[in-house]
Design a protein that fits this description.
This protein has 326 residues and is mostly beta strands. 2% of the residues lie in helices and 49% in strands.
Length: 326
């Protein structure tokens, strides 16, 4: 949906509805998705809630030859189990139920005019986590994320400039004081297929990408991100395309998660560093392409966490792949 930014792989049983009646360029989509279904013996466990996770989605699109745009709304209810004691209190050892209702509004637009193009997306998360357990403060979701890219096609060269942002967790807002959950990425990262940089957003590192790993390596999703990426693709021949990119990236919040107690704490610095990429793609057949990518990250002091004695190291990545399409 929309751009690749903040798009995540989702699996679940889905009931979809495509209403008729709207004429082009307008269209809509509605669906209900069961992310997780929990069937538990309520007589044995004496449960009064269930651990189902269900998403309700509504979308509207406006699409013509030059503009692809849309508005997305999602309500996700993540319930957890709770065990009720005979006296009506909740069994703390087995947890109390949690009503985790997270809402999302996303607007996107992809516009092209002659040889120029602009892609943009803006997301706002809101909602609440309501705890039944006594002494546990409720918390609200309140965060933003966005991406803007501009570029042009000049003969065989396609340069572009991108900025993307995801809000990090404010270290002063914790579960202890009932502060807002301000991390836009959670543990998910910036999207499975969103890879403007091979290392920081690449699927093989898990730093800000959750395709293979959890998307929160070194707690970077918790810290959020500001990034500026300049890139260019050059078509050498119908078979060979070259790619280059340079990016400056920093955390939105100077935070890290202390492994000793699992709490979000203030870090030493917010600089992720500078990243440099080069790559090539060669089309062996119409449906068979070989790619080779090299990335170098000159790491910033964010990777020291809160230590003044640690020394950050440069990070390199070299990948190659053979892709067949059908």
């Amino acid at each position: 949906y929309g751009t690749n930014f903040m798009d995540f792989d989702q699996r679940g049983d889905r009931v979809m509805l495509y209403p008729a009646g709207l004429e082009k360029p307008w269209s809509t989509l509605f669906y209900i998705q069961k992310n997780h279904n929990s069937n538990i013996d309520t007589f044995t466990n004496n449960l009064s809630s269930n651990a189902d996770s269900t998403a309700y989605v509504a979308r509207v699109y406006y699409q013509n030859d030059s503009l692809d745009s849309g508005l997305h709304y999602q309500y996700t209810n993540n319930a957890t189990n709770g065990t009720l004691n005979p006296d009506g209190s909740w069994d703390v050892a087995k947890s109390a139920p949690l009503n985790d209702a997270k809402q999302q509004v996303t607007a996107y637009a992809k516009y092209k005019m002659d040889n120029y193009f602009v892609n943009g997306e803006l997301t706002h998360f809101f909602g609440s986590k309501d705890y039944v357990a006594a002494g546990t403060l409720d918390r609200n979701y309140n965060s933003y994320a966005g991406m803007l890219q501009v570029g042009a096609k000049v003969d065989a060269l396609t340069p572009s400039l991108m900025y993307f942002y995801a809000q990090g967790q404010d270290v002063t807002k914790t579960s202890t004081n009932g502060g807002d959950i301000t991390s836009a990425l959670g543990n998910a990262g910036t999207g499975d297929q969103f890879e403007p940089l091979y290392i920081l957003t690449g699927r093989h590192t898990g730093m800000l990408n959750n395709e293979i790993f959890n998307g929160n390596t070194l707690n970077m999703s918790t810290a959020g991100v500001h990034a500026i990426v300049a890139a260019a693709d050059y078509v050498v021949s119908p078979q060979l395309t070259l790619h280059g990119a340079i990016g400056w990236v920093k955390a939105d919040e100077k935070v890290y998660v202390d492994p000793a107690d699992g709490k979000v704490k203030a870090g030493l610095d917010d600089a992720y560093g500078w990243e440099y990429n080069v790559g090539a793609a060669y089309k062996l057949l119409d449906n068979l392409t070989y790619e080779a990518h090299f990335g170098y990250l000159d790491t910033g002091d964010y990777f020291n966490y809160n230590s003044t004695t640690d020394s950050t190291k440069s990070i390199y990545i070299l990948t190659h792949s053979l892709t067949m399409t059908f």
